[in-house]
Amino acid sequence: MIGHRGSPRTAPENTLASFRQAARDGATWVEFDVSLTSDGRAVIFHDDDLDRTSDGTGPLAATPFDALRNLDAGGWFSPSFAGEPIPTLEEALELFRELGLSFNMEIKPDRGREVETAEVALAIARDCWPSDLPAPLISSFSRASVATAKEVQPGWPRGLLFDRVTEDWKDVGAQLDVISFGANHQHLTAETIRTMHEAGYGVMAYTVNDTERARTLKNWGVDGIFTDIPAAMLKAFT
Ligand code: G3P
Ligand code: MG
Q: Each residue of 92-129: pLDDT tens digit?
């Protein structure tokens, strides 16, 4: 059970408040998205544009860090979270250490910055994350980002993400030496999970917010689910 962007039904996604809430919900793993500002700072943010989850506008990738830091990433969700900043990767990792949370870092590059985003994020994570703590899972939809993760931090496990699994999954999985695949649960079948397991890979499903669907996926042998409702999911499965 992995808190998807923290606990985003109860606190604004991909903020420190959301990760704290996930820990309060009982999650032991959280997923977050890391992207680069125009001046190359790694921040925790999902969308290409700032509009939906902050009071900013336009592309994150065109915004310098200093301007981004003045934005409010909580007020859109609820006035009680007003002033919540877009976190830096360093801040998120420090909080995970404090809370004892394990994490899945999803590299979310802007087009053309697949290698750079992975390089910057991995360099920070390597410096900030103590080697005696459990290694994070590094994942991306971008094959170039996963390839970069393999190159710069080969010892950390990797996952490749799909919406719908593509036919070349076995070849690309071997090439990138991933331990797991993540896929949109709506396109996952028992057969896909079984075939991937037989080939030696784990299978993770996103984003599962229905406990019955989670049960079906679990019966099919899925190895992990990303959920927006960690508290409810944990309650349903314990
Ligand atoms: O990593 C699983 C999931 O987060 C992938 O989709 O769009 O929520 O980042 P998205
Ligand atoms: Mg994500």
A: 999 999 999 999 999 999 999 999 999 999 999 999 99
Active-site choice (4, 185, 187, 197): 4
Catalytic residue check, 187: no
Distant-in-sequence contacts of 130-138, Cβ < 8 A, 24+ apart: 130/97, 133/97, 134/102, 136/102, 136/103, 136/104, 136/105, 137/103, 137/104, 137/105, 137/179, 137/180, 138/104, 138/105, 138/107
Neighbours of ion ligand 2 (CB under 5 A): 33, 106
Atom of ligand 1 nearest to the CA of 5: 4
For residue 185, how far is its CA from the centre of ligand 1 (angstroms)?
Answer: 11
**pLDDT of 48-103, one tens digit each?**
999 999 999 999 999 999 999 999 999 999 999 999 999 999 999 999 999 999 99
Domains detected in the chain: 2-236 (3.20.20.190)
What is the Cβ-side half-sphere exposure of residue 72, based on CA atoms within 13 angstroms?
11
Atom number in ligand 1 closest to CA 106: 1
Q: What is the pTM of this model?
A: 0.98
